[in-house]
Structures are given as structure tokens and as C-alpha cells.
Specification:
The complex is a heterodimer of chains A (124) and B (240). Chain A has 124 residues and is an all-alpha fold. Chain A is built from four helices and no strands. Chain B has a single domain, classed as Spore Coat Polysaccharide Biosynthesis Protein SpsA, Chain A. In chain B, strand 1, helix 1 and strand 2 form a beta-alpha-beta unit. The chains are: A mainly alpha (124), B alpha/beta (240).
């Protein structure tokens, strides 16, 4: 099997998972339409870039713009690793933002409720 | 009962370690508004102070909301305005806890809001910048320019802490940052929801106390503000 095909096959499940997660978050109302579209565009762009690695390499090599060796098995593993990290970092950032917003809202509501409670107690 | 007398005004003061001047600030505000026809309440949001800010505010007659954690000026302001909204106030104001704002200007802001039928009024120190150092003028003008470049909002003093909010603004205006950068972000959000934004001139009172404390906002802090605003703008560009 060609290493270029292997690269795409290894990364397709990750990109599919990312696209599906974005769709689910959008349908559940966690993502705005704009965010859903931007996430979809980013991951489709990554898929497109991976699928056209061979053509990009051939173009650069034939025009004397690169002197590097063709894709090695190590490169395939390395690029897949980068996509995995990107996927995880993206999900973590989304979760962190949600958590941060929840903690902020909770802190705000708790502070107001406590102030009201204290005032009621002082009246008694 | 006149219409103004039935207008409920929340005077929100976000405060952090301002125990030294807190009582004076609340008392001065109380004296000015007592003479006005408005039904008012002074709300001090103690943003997790380590000193006696809450005690001093309470002794001066303010309603105190104490944050368990220090969240920053934006977080404390959001809590105060959220309280005002929950308690069904018609108008809310925010002013600095270090005595930088003249209480008469706060009252003037409330009157201007009613007169202009605006949703958000900014008390601008730069319409008449007497009393401000050149460095402060330059820093504030720079941040107002950056606010214009990033968000397309043209105001003379984007960082002013004296602001007046209508009932609609209280209900609809939300922002995400919690530090000083909320001043610019708030204007951006107001523009997004089509609030009527205006300005009115105020005096800037700088005392040794307000300029001397180490945590006080200075021009170096402007870099942090710009950094956060640019990051926020980029995040929003890709959809929040």
C-alpha cells in the first residue's frame, strides 16, 4: 500500500470524529452556526491537505522548491500524531471554555444569593 | 408620585482592596443621590478583597455582594449588573471604587440616559481632559483607537469605569472577559445587539491614593488588554 494512501486512511477516522463532534455539538446547541461552519472548514481543509500531499510534494520537487526525500513511514506516523494532538487540543479548548463559563456563572449567582441570604439573616 | 421617583437606580461599585476609601466613596454617592428624586440602592461588589472593603461599604449603608474568588473588574461589574437586573432596577450605573468619579457626574449620567433615551452611556474623561496626565490621556486614546480598529466602535474614552445602563442593556448585555478588557468588549457586545450607545463628559479626579496603589491600572496594563482583545476577536472570528 502506498504511504500516501496509508496517511489518509490513518487520519480519516480522526477527521471524521472531529466533524461528527462538531455536528453533534451544533445540533445540541453547544456550537453556534458560525463555529460549526468554521470547525467543518478547518477539518475538511486538513483532510484535503493530507489527500493532496503527494501532488504537493511532486509539484514542489519538480519545480526545485524542495530537496527532501519522499514520504517515509516515520513521516506518516509523525503527521498522524500531529493530527491526533490537534484533535485533542481542540476538544480540550472547547471543554475548558464551557467549564470556565459555567464556573463564572456559578460564582456570580452564588455571590448574589449569599449576599441576599446574609441580608435576610441580618434583618432577623 | 413623579415618574422619576418611581425610577429605581442601582449604583454599582466594583471594588478590590479599597477599604481605605470605600466608606467615603459610598457616603459621597449617597449624599448626592439622596437629594435626587430617584429610588436608589448602592451596591458594592467586593471582588474577593483581602482588606475591610466589605465592612466599610456595609457601614456606609451599601448592599454588599462579596465574591468568594477574585475575578477581576469585568467579573465584579457583571455580578453587580446581574444583581440589578434580577432586582428589576430600571437604570444601573457603574463607577470606580477609588473615588475617581465625581458622584455629581454619576447623577448627571442617569439624567442624560433618561433624556437621550440611550441604552448605554459612557462617562468620557477625554471630552474635557483637564486633570489627566499626558501619559493617561495617551494610553486611553490609544486603547480607544484599538477598540475602534478591532470592533469599529468610535468613542472617546473606551476604558471609562463610569457607565450608565438602561433596563434593556441590563437584560441583554453580556460579555466574556473578566479583566479590564471588558470595557472594550462591553462596547462591542452593545454594538452587536444594536444598543443605543452615547457619551457624556465627566471630570477625572486623580488623588495620590488612586494613582499610588500598585495594582492600579496603568499604561503597561494596556498591553495585556490589547493582547486579550485581539485573542477574543480572533476566537470570535472562527465562531464562539
Amino acid at each position: 500500500m502506498s504511504r500516501y494512501v496509508l496517511l489518509v486512511l490513518l487520519n480519516i477516522p480522526l477527521i471524521f470524529a472531529a466533524l461528527l463532534s462538531a455536528l453533534v455539538d451544533f445540533k445540541l446547541g453547544k456550537f453556534t452556526r458560525k463555529k460549526y461552519l468554521s470547525q467543518t472548514v478547518i477539518w475538511i481543509f486538513i483532510l484535503g491537505a493530507l489527500a493532496s500531499v503527494k501532488f504537493i510534494y511532486q509539484f514542489l520537487f519538480s519545480n526545485g522548491l524542495t530537496q527532501t526525500e519522499p514520504l517515509s513511514l516515520f513521516d506518516v506516523v509523525q503527521i498522524t500524531g500531529i493530527v491526533v494532538v490537534l484533535f485533542m487540543a481542540n476538544r480540550s479548548r472547547i471543554k475548558l471554555e464551557t467549564l470556565e463559563r459555567r464556573v463564572k456563572d456559578l460564582h456570580q449567582e452564588l455571590s448574589i444569593s449569599l449576599s441576599e441570604y446574609r441580608r435576610e439573616n441580618e434583618k432577623k | 408620585m413623579s415618574k422619576l421617583a418611581s425610577t429605581r437606580v442601582a449604583l454599582v461599585i466594583p471594588a478590590y482592596n479599597e477599604g481605605e476609601v470605600m466608606r467615603g466613596v459610598v457616603t459621597d454617592l449617597y449624599k448626592v443621590f439622596k437629594k435626587s428624586p430617584y429610588d436608589f440602592q448602592i451596591v458594592v461588589v467586593d471582588d474577593g478583597s483581602k482588606d475591610n472593603t466589605s465592612i466599610e461599604a456595609k457601614l456606609a449603608g451599601a448592599h454588599v455582594i462579596k465574591h468568594i474568588l477574585n475575578t477581576g473588574s469585568g467579573g465584579a461589574t457583571a455580578t453587580g449588573l446581574s444583581y440589578a437586573q434580577q432586582q428589576c432596577f430600571d437604570i444601573a450605573t457603574t463607577s470606580d471604587a477609588d473615588g475617581q468619579h465625581d458622584p455629581e457626574d454619576v447623577l448627571k449620567g442617569v439624567e442624560e440616559l433618561t433624556r437621550k433615551q440611550a441604552d448605554l452611556l459612557i462617562g468620557s474623561r477625554l471630552i474635557n481632559n483637564a486633570g489627566m496626565s499626558r501619559v493617561k490621556v495617551l494610553g486611553n486614546k490609544g486603547l480607544s483607537f484599538i477598540t475602534y480598529v478591532l470592533f469599529g466602535i468610535n468613542v472617546t474614552d473606551s476604558q471609562s469605569g463610569l457607565r450608565v445602563f438602561s433596563k434593556r442593556a441590563l437584560a441583554e448585555l453580556k460579555w466574556k472577559t473578566s479583566g479590564y478588557e471588558f470595557c472594550s468588549e462591553m462596547l462591542w457586545r452593545a454594538k452587536q445587539i444594536n444598543l443605543n450607545i452615547g457619551e457624556f463628559p465627566i471630570k477625572a479626579i486623580y488623588t495620590d491614593y488612586s494613582t499610588g496603589k500598585p495594582h492600579r491600572q496603568n499604561n503597561w496594563n494596556a498591553f495585556n488588554i490589547v493582547k486579550t482583545l485581539v485573542a477574543r476577536r480572533l476566537v470570535e472570528f472562527f465562531g464562539e
